[in-house]
Amino acid sequence: MTFGMPSVTLGQNTDTKKEELKKEGAKETIKEEPVNMDAIVARWGDRVIKEGDVRKEMDKNAPYILYPARSVSELPKEEQMQYRRKMLNFIIDRRLIQDSAGELKVVVNDEDTSKGIADIKKHFPDEQAFASALKQQQMTAKDLESDIRRDMTIRKVIDTVTATTPTVTEQEVANYYKENPERFKQPEEVWASHILVSADKNASIADREAARKKIEALRKRLLAGEDFAQLAKDNSDCPSGKRAGGDLGWFKRGRMLKEFENVAFALKLGELSDIVETPVGYHIIKVHEKHAERVISLEEVKGDLRRDLITKKKGEVFERWLTERKKQVVFTNQEDKDIPKEEVKK
After folding, report:
1. Does domain 188-292 have CATH number 3.10.50.40?
2. C-alpha–C-alpha distance, residues 49 and 39, integer Å
3. Per-residue confidence (pLDDT) for residue 343, from 0 to 100
4. Strands of 276-278's sheet, edge to edge?
5. Residue 282's beta-bridge partner residues?
């Protein structure tokens, strides 16, 4: 459960009212009612949530979680309201958790926040890059510190609430393994590299012939003993060439173009393919290793399964705790109160 960034997946429905107006030749002049930003939409104790709080959260998260829209105004009206309802409940959940820190004796000190900032800075080459990233997010260092303190508080509250969650037994792990056989089927996999000489399907005959001759010459050099990775780095039109000497890593069926994967899965280890033509051009493929289709044993996944089931139990314990806390919240509009369980992803 993550409260730093709500995860919301919205559909891509069409705004039917606007479509009807277009069909009728009418002007798209749907008048929007003004929004009262000071209107109280939820309250508990001395806490109040205003419409402005919700709109601010909506705008803040829109670029990250609205797809393909990049702003709230790009969404159809119905989806705007769905998104608004999710953000309101997200704010309420987050503040209810924060409000519980005192009674649970949860403390986040300056040393904790300093370490959190230092951990974030490790992902940037220097202070200038870090400052630039903050500016792009329209944040100050103080804003970041506040967010880190808030998120650390939330994590500590969750850990405290779920600290006494019953452990997962060996039998529970075994039962889950037995009841979910599909999860433990590992499909056939191949680890391969390739060299690509691009030749778009719309390219001229002359361009395709030139690409063909280039790939043939490269294959002769490989057969003569030249290094595959170096030739890929110097000649491949696929980004994997310069990035990793043509190495594509492990992949399952369905990940690559059909013509490409049919050859890759048929090759023997270390074998060099003939020239493979696909809609993007000509390839030479080399297979490094293969995994046959198999069923992963219980012993291999026992540790991961135990962790997954413990996380699930903790999530259930915390959901019950939060649901109980949320009973004190009074919504101005009852339609804002309940979100179907399947719509909420935290």
Report:
1. yes
2. 9
3. 44
4. 247-252, 189-198, 281-291, 276-278
5. 197, 277
